[in-house]
Specification:
The structure holds two protein chains of two kinds.
Chain A (H helix, E strand, L loop, with lengths): L1 H15 L6 H18 L7 H19 L4 H36 L16 H12 L17 H8 L3 H30 L1 H6 L2 H4 L5 E5 L3 H12 L5 E5 L6 H11 L3 E5 L4 H4 L5 E5 L2 E2 L5 E4 L2 H10 L4 E4 L13 H4 L12 H4 L21 E4 L6 E4 L2 E3 L4 H8 L8
Parallel strand pairs in A: 1-2, 1-4, 2-3, 4-7, 7-9
Antiparallel strand pairs in A: 5-6, 6-8, 9-10
Chain B lengths: L7 H12 L20 H10 L4 H26 L9 H9 L6 H15 L5 H18 L4 H18 L6 H30 L7 E6 L3 H12 L4 E6 L6 H11 L4 E4 L4 H4 L5 E4 L3 E2 L5 E4 L2 H10 L4 E4 L40 E4 L6 E4 L2 E3 L3 H10 L1
Parallel strand pairs in B: 1-2, 1-4, 2-3, 4-7, 7-9
Antiparallel strand pairs in B: 5-6, 6-8, 9-10
Helix pairs in contact in B: 3-6, 4-5, 5-6, 5-7, 5-8, 6-7, 8-9
The chains are: A alpha/beta, B alpha/beta.
Chain lengths: ~400, ~375
Amino acid sequence: MPDVQSMVLEFVNKLRKRKIEGSQATARCTVELLRSVISHHRVPHANQASALIDAVKAVGAQLVAANPVELAVGNVVRRVLHIIREEDLSLATAAVAGLDLLDASDDDEDVNGKGIGYPGMSAAVVAAAARSTLRPPSLQTLLEGTPESATVPYTSSSGADSESKTADKSSITRKLKHDVIEGVNQLIHEIAGCHEQIAEQAIEHIHQNEVILTLGSSRTVLEFLCAAKEKKRSFRVFVAEGAPRYQGHLLAKELVARGLQTTVITDSAVFAMISRVNMVIIGAHAVMANGGVIGPVGVNMAALAAKKHAVPFVVLAGSHKLCPLYPHNPEVLLNELRSPSELLDFGEFSDCLDFGTGSGSPLLQVVNPTFDYVPPSLVSLFITDTGGHNPSYMYRLIADYYSADDLVM
Amino acid sequence: MWRRSASFILDDERRRTSNSPPMADNTTRAPFQNPDAISAYYQTRAAHHGVITSDWLAQAQAAVGGGVSGEENSDSSVSELGKDKSFNVIEEFNGWRKQPDLAEAVAAIRALAAVIRASEASTMMELEIELKKASDTLKSWDKTSISLTAGCDLFIRYVTRTSALEYEDFNSAKSRLLERAEKFGEISCKARKIIAMLSQDFIFDGCTILVHGLSRVVLEILKTAAQNNKLFRVLCTEGRPDGTGVLLSNELSKLDIPVKLLLDSAVAYSMDEVDMVFVGADGVVESGGIINMMGTYQIALVAHSMNKPVYVAAESYKFARLYPLDQKDMAPALRPIEFGVKIPAKVEVEMSARDYTPPQYLTLLFTDLGVLSPSVVSDELIQLYL
C-alpha cells in the first residue's frame, strides 16, 4: 500500500539521519510502524503466516540497514516475527484440535482417514512437530530431520468440503492478523513500561547508606535510583560526567531535583573513587547474546575499575535491548564515530585538521566513538523487566523472546 | 604415591589396583601402567593420521595381545544374548570406524542401524532391548571414546522417544528408524558445514589463528574461510605424539593458507601475535568444558591469561553426560609415546592422550545448534534427557 510505503521510507530516513535518540523511542517507533505494515498487508488465504513474515522481514531488513548500530531496531523486528510464528502455531494447534473434535462427531467408522494427511500419526504428534519448528535446533530434534511445516493442517482443512469448515477457515484468516496485532500491542506496552518494571526491583538492590556510581545519563538508572529514594532508602550517588557529551551533568541535576545527594566527578576520577563505592549501576545501549554489554563510552573503564576493586557492576536493560547476536568485533562493527567537534572546536583547530605535508592526510586525527563494549566476565548482574539475571543466563531470555530462523535477515 | 588429586577416591582405587597387577604379561611394564587402558579410540586416530613407527607398532602388538581377550569376552557376551546370529556389532563398528572421514558417533549409529536391520524382533520393546544390549557392548568395548558413548546414547534416546509416538505399524517404525540412522551420516556432514558457516564472521582479515590438534571440523572452518577469500594465517602446534601439526600444515598449504609450525612448548612465546585459538573437541561435557587432545588445556590457560578468545568447534552429538572435576576424573585413555631414544626401564611416561579444559577458559562453542556459550551446554543436555 502506498501509504505504508511512504511511512516506511520516512522512518528509514529518520533512522539514517540519526534523528531519533534513545533505544526506547526507536523501538517504539519501529513497532508502531510494523503494526501498520501488518494491518495494511493483504494476506492470501493459504500460508498467511509466511506472507506476513516475508512482509515484515522485507521492511525489517530496510530498517536495520538504515542504522545497523541501533540494535533495538533489529531486536524489535525479530520480536514481531517471533510473535507471528507463535500466534500461527497456537492457531494451528487449536485448528487441529478442532478438526479432531469435528471428525470424532462426524464419522464413527472413518477412524483411519482423519483428514489430517499424516497416516498413522495422531494430532498430538503433529502439534509437537509444529511446536519444534518454533524452538531453536536442539539435541532432541537432531535425529528427527526437518519436521513438516505447521501449515499442512490449514491446507487439509481447505481441502475438506463441509461448509462449517470453510466458515471456520475464513474466521481463522482474520484471527491470525488480529492475534498478531494484539501481540504487537502487548509488545508496545512492554517497551513503554520497562522503566517501571525495572525500577520496582530497586529496593532489593540498594541498601541504606550506600554509595552508587553511575556514568553518563540513562533514564532507566534515573527511575531506578528515584524508586529507591521513594522507599526511604538514603544513599549517595557519584555521577561520572561522561565526556564529551557531559550528559552526567544533566543526570546530576535531575537527581538533585528529586532530593538525592549527588557528587559529579570526571571520567578519569573513576579509578580513584572506585574504592569508596559500593555498587556501580549502568544503563546499557544493548546486551548481546553472550552477556556482553554495549554502553556509552567509558563504561568499560568503569567495569575494569569495579572488577579490580571487587565492586558489583550492575547493568539495567529493558527487554528490547536484548540482542540475539554474538559480537565478533563489537568495538569496531557495533560502534559509531560521532562528530569530532564535540571534542575540539573547529575554529581553534581548523589549521591542524587541514591536509598536512605531502602525504595528503591530516596530521591531527580526532576519534569520538559513541559506544564501549564490556565483556561478560566484568558484569555481575543484569536487571531486566523480568528480574535479575546472571550474564551467563542471557541466552535463555533470548531463546524465549526470539526464534532461531529470524537471526539472519 | 606421588599422585594427590582432589578425587581421593580415585587415588585410593589406583593404589589398590597397582598393588595387585591384573595380568600376567604386566611384568615387563612399570607398576602404574595398565595395558588394557590403551585407548582404541586414540589408536584409531593415530592410524588415521598415519604416524606409525616401528616402536609404536611393537607396543601396539603387545596391547592388542591384551585387547583381543577383551574382544573375545564381548564376543561371547554377544552370543550369550541367545540369538543365533553370526552378526557382531563390534565388528560392524570397527569396519565403519576405519574410514578416516567418518566421525566416531556416525560409525556407532551405523553399527546400531545394522543391529536393527539384522534384528528379528517383532515389537518395539524387543527391538529397544536388543539395541540397548548392543549399545552397552559397544560402550564397554571402548570406555574411553566419548563420541561413541554420546552417539549411542543419542540414538537409544531417539528410539525410545519415537516408539512413544504410537506408530501403528511396527515395520514402518523400524524402517523409519533405519532411514534416520542412515541419514545421520548426512547430518554429521551438514553439521560441519553449518559450523563452518557460523564461524565465518569471527575470522577477520589479517588475523592470526592458533590451531591445536587435527580436527576435521576446524579444517572445514579454515577451508571455508579460505574459499571466502579471507586473509589470515595459521599457527599450528606440533601436536606430539600424533604429529598433527605436520599433517594440518600439509592440508593448509594445499589451500594456500600461510602456516607456521610451533613446538608445543612455544605456544606461550607466540601467544601475543595470536588473535584467536581454534580447537575441536573429542567430547563436550556437562559443565561446558571440553575433552580434547593433550595440550588443549595448556593452550587455553595461556590464551586466557593473555585475553585471547578460545573458540571450540564441535558437533552437537559430542555432548556427553560427564562432569569431570579435575584432570584425572575421567576414564584413563592411554596412548603409547615414542621418544626416539631408549628410555631406562624405571622411568615412567605420562601416557594420557587427552585432557579436560574447564569452561571458564573457553569463550564460545560453535556447534550445529548455533553459537553457544559454555553455560548453554548443560541446558541442551537437560532438554534431551528430560
